[in-house]
Design goal:
504 residues, Serine Threonine Protein Phosphatase 5, Tetratricopeptide repeat, Jelly Rolls, 22 helices, 56% helix
Length: 504
């Protein structure tokens, strides 16, 4: 060890760092480390500098060297965790923050940062416990209270989230993220007036705050102040003309406010910005109908050509379609994600699963292969027959499936909706009650063309009703508004719905 050389190199590193010559400072730290290889403070200082420079990977290497020399340093483990986070190495970050918290149980920041990683890993209850520990250690720490609010919001504990955000703002009134997130939770609680007060404070302090005016628009929309909502969405678009959420809600607000001509103009601008987007096609069709331009709407809602029925062939491993469908029905009934009337879905009088095709084996896996065959056939037909149709713009080359099961009881139904994230949507009918199959009425049928109440309109819609049949599949554009008509039967109506999600 050459202590004099090490001291000189450290002095030089400090001079370079003060002068902003960071690369030179890193080199000087390396020289110091060579002269004094057993001093953990040198690789630790270099690691901190590298992290400041944005070199998280190199920082982690240097900090690991420091920890080899000082394995009981909670501060070093904390800094290493920060480097791992910057490098998206969340499991390694969790381990580092856990070590820091065990070595220094009183180190609030270690518990806070551990909570952040656990939240990112989808472990909200553990994250919540970490934030509460950090708050116990440092009651005046606004950041930990803000983070607690975030995880409480994640798990739907909205009243508690409101309290956490208010506590954070009481300690740090300048935290606009906390103010905006508080507004978001109040919005979810339909406390629109309180939410609006939050969002107005945000945009008053920071007119360029991300999504500020968009959130003002949401609150105004909830209060029925459609003119104010439209004005707020237009302000949001001044900051970001390509903001699809603002364009989307501006279309809805203008339609609801009885301004279909303005809505149509926004739809066309929306399509100019994003020709492959399906959402504006849904609103454009509704606006054209409201304006009496039904011929143009019929081009977009070309039910004859765009509804694509597909009969599933009997899989080799099943004796009959009844046996195959019975296996699918059991898969849906026993699926761990099955929930009655999920709050964020349109299913009324029934239950719905989350992602269904998690097992490539069995009946579900067999159906998934059939769905992919049907999607391939549909895309081929679109390329052949609809090359000039707006819907054919941006046909997905790469895509994945999102699938879910739906069980509807007597009087069960789904309100009018479309699937904004999909390109192609579809449904496979597993079980259709006899009362639906044999009825001369439309009960239990799928209806296309009736728009949601949220966008209003008084003109007679263009409609097409299709009778479901067990063992058949129906594919359609994701921008088609559709609903399930209520029915009476002791037998449930069971289906598997899906979206084709484009991949960039």
């Amino acid at each position: 060890m050459n202590s004099n050389a090490a001291t000189a190199a450290l002095r030089l590193a400090a001079e370079h760092q003060r002068a902003g010559r960071l690369e030179a400072a890193c080199t000087a730290y390396l020289d110091a480390q060579q002269s004094d290889p057993n001093n953990p403070q040198i690789p630790a200082a270099r690691g901190v500098l590298l992290l400041q420079m944005g070199h998280a990977g190199d920082a982690a290497v240097s900090l690991q060297r420091a920890l080899e020399l000082a394995p009981d340093s909670a501060e070093l483990w904390l800094t290493l965790g920060n480097a791992r986070v910057r490098n998206d190495e969340f499991e390694a970050a969790r381990e580092a923050f856990s070590r820091a918290a065990k070595l220094r149980p009183d180190l609030a920041v270690a518990h806070n940062n551990l909570g952040n990683v656990l939240r990112r890993q989808g472990r909200p209850e553990e994250a919540k416990a970490c934030y509460r520990k950090a708050i116990d250690l440092e009651p005046d720490n606004a950041l930990s209270r803000f983070n607690l609010g975030n995880v409480l919001s994640d798990i739907g504990a909205l009243d508690e989230a409101v309290g956490a955000y208010r506590d954070a703002l009481g300690l740090d009134p300048s935290n606009l993220s906390a103010l905006s997130n508080l507004g978001g939770v109040l919005l979810r609680q339909q406390r629109f007036r309180d939410a609006l007060a939050c969002f107005e404070r945000v945009v008053a302090a920071r007119p360029d705050f991300k999504r500020g005016f968009y959130n003002v628009g949401l609150a105004c929309q909830g209060l029925g102040k459609l003119g104010a909502a439209a004005a707020a969405y237009r302000r949001a678009l001044q900051h970001d003309p390509g903001d699809e959420w603002a364009l989307n809600n501006l279309c809805i607000t203008l339609m609801k406010g009885g301004e279909p001509a303005q809505a149509l103009a926004v739809c066309d601008a929306y399509l100019d910005l994003s020709p492959a987007n399906r959402k504006p096609l849904a609103y454009k069709a509704a606006a054209l109908i409201e304006l009496g331009r039904r011929d143009e709407a019929e081009v977009l809602l070309d039910f004859d050509r765009l509804l694509f029925p597909y009969r599933v062939e009997l899989p080799d491993s099943y004796a009959s379609m009844s046996e195959f469908n019975a296996a699918l029905a059991e898969h849906i009934r026993t699926h761990p994600t099955l929930r009655p009337e999920p709050h964020d879905k349109t299913t009324i009088g029934g239950s719905q699963t989350g992602e269904l095709m998690t097992d490539p084996t069995g009946a579900a896996g067999t159906l998934e292969r059939e769905i992919r065959n049907a999607v391939g056939a549909y895309i081929s037909a679109l390329r052949t027959d609809l090359d000039s149709h707006p819907y054919a713009t941006g046909l997905p080359g790469q895509w994945h499936l999102d699938t879910w099961g739906v069980i509807l009881r007597a009087q069960g139904h789904q309100g009018p909706h479309f699937h904004p994230e999909g390109y192609i949507s579809g449904v496979y009918y597993v079980t259709v009650p006899d009362e639906v199959s044999t009825s001369e009425s439309d009960e239990g049928h799928i209806e296309f063309g009736r728009t949601a109440e949220a966008i209003g309109g008084s003109a007679e819609p263009l409609l097409r009703v299709v009778k479901p049949e067990a063992g058949t599949m129906l594919l359609f554009p994701s921008y088609f508004y559709h609903r399930t008509i209520p029915f009476d039967s002791d037998t449930p109506r069971i289906c598997i719905a899906f979206d084709v999600i484009p991949e960039s």
